[in-house]
Amino acid sequence: MSAPNPTPSRGPQPGLSLIAYYLQLGWRSLRRNPVLTALMVIGIGLGIAASMTTLTVLHLTGADPIPWKSDRLHYVQLDNWSAEQPARDDGSPPDQVTYRDAMALMSARKADKQAAMFKLSLPIQPENRELKPFQALGRVTYADFFAMFEPPFQFGAPWNRDQDEGHARVVVLTRALNEKLFGGQDSTGRSLRMNDVDYTIVGVLDEWKLRFRYYDVTNGAFADPDEFFMPLTTAVDLKQRSTGNNSCWQSPGDGWEAYLNSDCVWLQMWVQLDTPARLAEYRDFLNSYVSEQKKLGRFPRPLNNRLLDVNQWIVDQRVVSRDMEVQTGLAFAFLAVCLVNTIGLLLAKFTRKAGEIGLRRALGASRADVFRQFLVESGVVGLSGGVLGLGLTALGLVAVRALYSEYRSVAQLDWTMVLTTIALAVVSAVLAGLYPTWRACRVQPAAQLKV
Amino acid sequence: MEIRPILSALMRSKVAMILIGLQVALTLAIVCNALFIIGQRLDRMHRPSGMNEADTFMVSSTGFGQNFDAFATLKADLALLRGIPGVADVTPANSVPMSEGGWSTGLNLQPRQRTSSADTALYLVDDHALDTFGFKLVAGRGFKPEEAAEVNFGDRLQPASIIVTRALADKLFPGGDAVGKQVYMDEDPPTSTIVGVIERAQQPWMSSSSVEMSTLVPAFMPYGKSTRYLVRTEPGRRDAVMKDVEQKLAEANHGRIVGRLRTIETVRAEAYAGDRAMAVILGGVIVALLLITALGIVGMASFWVAQRTKQIGTRRALGATRGDILRYFMTENFVITTLGLAAGALLTYAFNYWLITHYQAQRLPLAYLGGGVLALWLLGQIAVFGPATRASRVPPAVATRSV
C-alpha cells in the first residue's frame, strides 16, 4: 500500500487554490508511478494522434472551400446522354457539358454570373532566352470566373466581358508563373508567347490559397494547380482542344466543327445565383432549354438536369475519398481502445490509493472533494496525453504528406485542430476517469484505516 | 484445471475483466478488418500489367508554332530513338497501363448496335508494339509495318487490323476463335479485323471494372502537336539510356518541349500510391493497437498481482507451488481473453458489415478471424507472463504479515 500524501497544514480552501492544490497532488501522484502514468499518457497520446491525423485530413478536404458564397455557386449538369444507357450507373447526368450547350447557356446570360471553362495545357515560349520553353497548365474560361471564385490579384485585373466577346488575346498569370517568367515583377501590359501566339498579360494573381481545385473536380481536385487563365473564346478560335477529360457516347465525326457540334462533354459550367428565387428561375430556364433541344432531336433521355451547389458537388464527386473515411473510422475505434485501456489503468491506480483516500476522508474531506481531486488527476493525464498527441499528430501529418503527395495542401495542422486535439484528449481522459473516480469516492474511511 | 476459483475471483472484479475483455474485443475487430483491407490492397497492387516494367519508360514531345509538323517529328523521333545505343525497341504509344489517362471506346459486333458488346482501352502503337511493351502473343500475329496509318487527330479511328487481349477476345468471341473475326470500332463500317491476341495488357485505369480489356490499334496519331513514345532498353541500362534519350530528343528539334521522362516503375508506384498509403497507415494502426493492448494487459495484471499479494502468499503457505501460481494467472488471462475474443468475433463482423454497406467492401473470410484470435491469445499470454512470474515469486511469508 502506498503512503498517504503529505497534507499541507492549511485546510482545503474552496476555489482556485484548491484546484491548484489538486493539480499539484495529481502531478505528484503521476510522478510516483512513472510506468503506469507513462502507459496512460502514451495510450491517450497515440489514440488522439491517430484520430486527429485522419480527422484533420478529412476536415480540411471536406471543408467548404468558399464559405461566404458556396450556396450561391452552382454546377450545371444537363443529361444529353444516350437513350440506351445513362452517363453514370446511378442514373445521374454526365459531370461535364458539351460545347454547344455551354455556348447556349453563356449567351443566354440567365444567371447572375456564369463561366464555362476547360483545362488546357500550352507550351510557353519565354522572352527570356535563358528559360527553355515549357508546358504550363491553364484554365480557359470567361471574365465572370474571377468574380465568381474570387482569386486575389497582385497586379492588374481580370479581363472583361467585352474581351470575352472580342476573342481578345489576353492572359492572367498566377503568382508562381509570374515569378518564374518575370522574377515577380509587375508584368501587366507585357506580352507572353504561348504556342506561337502572343497574349497580353492583363493581371497577375496573388497567392491563391485553394486547398483543392473545387471548380474542376472532374480533372482531379488534387491535381496540379492552374498556372494561367485565358478567354475561352480565344482558345476556341485557335482550335485548342482541351487537355482534360472528354467523354462521348457517340462518335463526334471528323474534324473540329463536328467536334464542337457533337454531344461530347468536355467543359465545366458554373453559374452564380444570388437568391433562392434566382435559383428557381434558373432551374426553369434549364428545363425549357432542354425541352427546346428535345424538339431538335437532342437530349433523348428524360429531363434530368442538376444544379448542385459547391458543397453538394464536392460530396457528389467524393472529393473526400472512401479510404479517408475508413481510416478515420478505424482511428476512432483505436481511440476507443486507448480510452478503455486508460479506464483500466486509472482504476488500478486509484484502487491502490484506497488507503490514502481513507485517510483524507477521515481527516474531513467530503466525497465531492475526493471526486474533484481524482478528476483533476485524470485531467492532468489527458492534458499530457494531448500534448504528446499533438506532437504525434504533427508527425502523422508529415507521414500523410509523404504517403499521399496530392494531400499536401490539406495535411496541415491548423489552430482549430490544435485546440480540438487538446480538448478531445482532456475530455476523453476525464470521461475515462469518471468511473474509476466514482469508485474511489466510495472508499469507506474506516475500512482503510484499520491495521 | 483450476477454472472455477479463477471464475469466482473474476466475478469479484467484473469491471476490470470487462475492460480487458472489451479492449481485446475491439482490438480483434479492428485488427481483422484492417488486415483484410491490407490483404486486398496488396492483391490489387500485385496484379500484373502484362508488360515489361523493369526496362521501359515513357517520353513525350510537344511542339509549338504554326509550322510544326507532328507527323514528320514522330517519324524522325522514332528513327532517332531506335538508333540510340542501349535502346532495344521503341513504339509510339498514346498511353500505357497504370497511367490513369488514356482512351476508351466500345466495340460492337453489329453496325449501329444500341449498347456496345465490350468496353476497351485503346493503345495507339505501331508494328514495334509487342516487342517494346513485352506483350505476349498467344494467337495470330503482330502488326506489319504497313498497317500503321497516319490519322489526323479528331478524325475517326477505323483501323483495318487490331490486336486484343485474351480477356477481350473471350468476351467478344466466347468460342475462343477471335483471330480473323470482325468488330466495329465506330457505328458504321468499315470493320476492324482481329489479327492477334495477347495474353494480357491492363487498361490505364486501375479502378476500371474491365481492367483486362484492351485493344492495340496500329496508328500514328499525334494529340495535336504532342506525341508519346514507349522505350524499352537493354536490361539494366534504363537509367543511363533515359538521360541520353532526353538530351538527344531536345537537340534534334528546338521547336518542341521534351516532356518529363517517366519509368513504368514510377507509373506503377504512382498508380498504387493510394493503396500503398492505405496499407502502411492501417499497418501502423495495427502495430500501435497491439502494443497498447499488450501494455494494458501488463498494467492490469500487475495491478491484480499487487492487489492479491497476500492471497498469493496464503496459497503458497498452504502448499501451492510457484508453477501453480504462474498457471493461475496465465489461465486467468486466457479465460478473459477468450471471453473478449468471443465478443470480438461478433464485433469484427459488425464492423465488416459497416464496411460492406458503406464502402462496398467484401465479406471478411473466416481465416482472418482465426488468425486474429490466435494472435491475440498469444499476445495475452506473452503480456501476462511477466506479471505472472512476479506473482509466482511472492514468498509464503507474506501471508503472515498484516498489511
Order of helices and strands of chain A: HHEEHEEHEHEHEEEHHEHEHHHHHH
The domain tally of chain A reads 2
- The neighbouring-strand order within the major sheet of chain A is 3-4-9-6-8-7
Strand content of chain A: 5-15%
Shape of chain B: elongated
Show unreliable segments of chain B.
Answer: none
Largest sheet features of chain B:
8 strands, mixed
Helix content of chain B: 40-55%
- Total DSSP helices of chain A: 15
Brief digest:
Chain A has 451 residues and is of the alpha+beta class.
Account of the protein in words:
The complex is a heterodimer of chains A (451) and B (403). With 451 residues, chain A is an alpha+beta fold. Chain A folds into two domains: 16-64 and 322-449, no CATH class; 79-304, no CATH class. Chain A has helices spanning 16-32, 34-62, 99-108, 144-149, 161-165, 175-182, 232-237, 256-260, 276-295, 310-316, 322-352, 354-362, 367-403, 415-441, 445-449, and strands spanning 73-77, 97-98, 113-125, 134-141, 153-156, 170-173, 191-194, 197-205, 228-231, 265-272, 306-309. The longest helix of chain A is centred in the last third of the chain and has 37 residues, at 367-403. The termini of chain A are close together. With 403 residues, chain B is an alpha+beta fold. Chain B has two domains: 3-46 and 274-400, no CATH class; 65-254, no CATH class. Chain B is built from eleven helices and 13 strands. In chain B, the strands form two sheets. In chain B, strands 3, 4, 5, 6, 7, 8, 9 and 10 form an eight-stranded mixed β-sheet that branches. In chain B, strands 1, 2, 11, 12 and 13 form a five-stranded antiparallel β-sheet that branches. In chain B, a hairpin with an 8-residue loop joins strand 8 (182-183) and strand 9 (192-198). The model of chain B has no long low-confidence stretch (mean pLDDT 91). Chains A and B meet through helix 2, helix 8, helix 11 and helix 13 of A and helix 2, helix 8 and helix 10 of B.
